[in-house]
Here is the input.
Amino acid sequence: MEDGSPWIAILITVVLVAINGMLASAEIAMMGLSATKLRAAVEEKGDKKARLLLKMKESPSDFLSTIQIGITLAGLLSGAFAADSLAAPIVAWAASMGVEGTALTVVSGASTFLITLLMTFFTLVFGELVPKRVAMVRPEKTARGIVTLIHGMSKVARPLVRLLAVTTNGVLRLLRVEQDDSDEHVTEEDILLMMREGQAQGEIEEQEVELLSNVFAFTDLDAESVMTHRTEIEDIEAHAPVEELVQRMAETGHTKFPVTKEDIDEIVGVVYMKDIIPLYIQDSGVAKKPVSEYMRPPYFVFEKKSVDEIFADMRTSGEELAVVVDDYGGTCGIITTTDIIEEIVGSTEEEEGIHKNEDGSFTVDGQTEFETLCERLNLSEPEEEDYDTLGGFLLDSLGYVPTQGQTPTVDYQGYRFQIAQMDGALPRSVRIWHLPEEKKEDDSPEENEAETKEKVTKE
Here is the structure.
């Protein structure tokens, strides 16, 4: 090419690279679009561009074929055109300088190679990487900007697209791959991963991610994992007067009580504050009557029954307290609607029985879940554990049950746990404080190697 033609070649090459970039960005932008949002825009606003995008989103085969045809042609043409058109002036200049024969052939090959290498670099940067990054950041804006052009290209390329589709499907049949076969199922893990990515980008609040995580975990829970254990149940005897019940309600803050006949394994009913208080106010004689006259029949559930089924039954029946029983009919614990709701939205009680003192130490209820405590103190749980609560961890570590007055300690991962109060065979109150650095440095090599092993000190 002569008379300024290299500039025309450069201009054509730039246009082809730009087309390649536009098509590459369209491919990425379509992957980032939400079909749900597009459908809502079509139904609510009658958005024409959203309708075209939704059509492409729902028929990805035609769209992707059009994109691949365009990218392939643009890449091939830009490379071939640039190599041929831009190398010619260099060869002509070399010939005018007296280069000829084998040397001129070498110049021609070298110039073609260098121009191809340079074109590959510019095509990758401006025809692939930059457009795709832009489309990833602004998928909807990018897709809306080029949807009309892509739609027009798909109409022009339709015959070739159909040929490619027939050929592709034929090859898939030979490979025994069904067109509908897909392992791309959206799982709970996928949704949580997307939620966490949204949280990292500042689009979703941490509480929203935690709430959704709790909802997914909720369906996997059984009654045993949510219930208040039998040792923690606040019950009322059937022959107790109503005035005693009212006093217990005021002291504990509970609004419902299981009613027992002789012991906790013989629950004969459930009494609700909302049933008692109106009658108690209207008739003073109610105060002396036995609780059994105002109790409801108990609602029993098996300890392995799923919590979501229990919750559904409670909503249908209006029950607010379920008695959890084991294989032998013994009472394992109770579940209230509040317990179930707290599994989703989080506990309404402060820090699950964990109280931080002014000196930096903690006073913790022995029935606090050990997993919750580990999360609060940033500790790792032992790999093998046969307990759920802090009290269980301490008894397992000590190897014996302390008696009243004993205050043994357990050292674990830089913290010292001291049993401050026993309630029968259960640790009720535990004091925890961080060990000084020099104390941890004095630990034996064996303890430093196995950080999660407990050091027990009896006092």
